[in-house]
Amino acid sequence: MKTNGNTILITGGATGIGLAFTAKFVEHGNRVIICGRREEKLKEAQIKFPQINTRVCDVSSHSDRETLYEWIKEEYPDLNILVNNAGVQRAIEFKEGINALISGDSEIETNFAAPIYLTAQFMPLLLTQEEAAVINVSSGLRFRAIARMPIYCATKAGIHSFTESLREQLRDTRIEVFEVVPPRVATSLGREPDVISGGIPPSDMADALLLALKNNEFEIIVG
Ligand SMILES: NC(=O)c1ccc[n+]([C@@H]2O[C@H](COP(=O)([O-])OP(=O)(O)OC[C@H]3O[C@@H](n4cnc5c(N)ncnc54)[C@H](OP(=O)(O)O)[C@@H]3O)[C@@H](O)[C@H]2O)c1
Question: Distance between CA 90 and CA 208 in Å, rounded?
């Protein structure tokens, strides 16, 4: 897969791993569009990388996903890479019942449903391109269930399974399907906004992704 001259949508591209992908893709001469819910984070990213385009979008919302697709189709008909990176992580205590599950961001909608629906939504556009890719960000926790984060781990196992099926299903097309499997990365995932703690630098994930795209290595396991 070429690593320059692409037009790329990165969900959750304004912070953490997504922002590192943004930086790396911009550095390599790609056109990058990022989306997320917080406008101030999108603006901060645009100050760092004035050449990118941004869009407020909640990927867990069906209507936001549809509007995003219609906008991209109109403004960036050459979009050829979809990076499903947006994610949330929560500790959920099942002994506290249903309220513990429904009281915050939905990991099921954001980490699992959104990449699947976005992939289906963007398929007509991706199928028209000479070279295209879907890049799903799962996690090292896809095969390691942690008691404190039961839904997060399940969504990442699910997205791994979906990615494998999709890769097989699209084998006779020009769309390649990649899975990025980060270890613990120093971002604010699962923490208060802007509280970053231990792990490898997000830029290491971006370096690994670029190398894997270049070499057509479809499963990118770091660490
Ligand atoms: N950090 C790690 O150790 C680690 C390890 C394995 C896998 N991962 C995965 O890597 C991906 C990126 O996470 P990160 O570590 O870089 O954390 P992060 O900095 O918190 O990034 C998550 C991004 O997703 C966006 N997002 C969350 N919910 C969204 C929604 N409903 N609609 C649109 N955007 C949404 C957030 O922006 P808004 O809040 O503004 O919407 C944010 O920009 C996630 O899929 C995560 O599961 C991370």
Answer: 26
Q: Domain extents for the chain?
A: 7-221
* pLDDT at residue 193 greater than cutoff 90: no
Phi, psi of 140, rounded to the nearest 5 degrees:
-60, -20
Cα 53 to ligand 1 centre (Å): 18
| pTM score above 0.90 | yes
DSSP string of 141-187, one letter each residue? GGG---TT-HHHHHHHHHHHHHHHHHHHHTTTSSEEEEEEE--SBSS
Ligand 1 binding pocket includes 106 (Cβ within 6 Å)? no
CA atoms within 13 A on the CB side of 180: 28
Domain 7-221 sits in CATH at 3.40.50.720
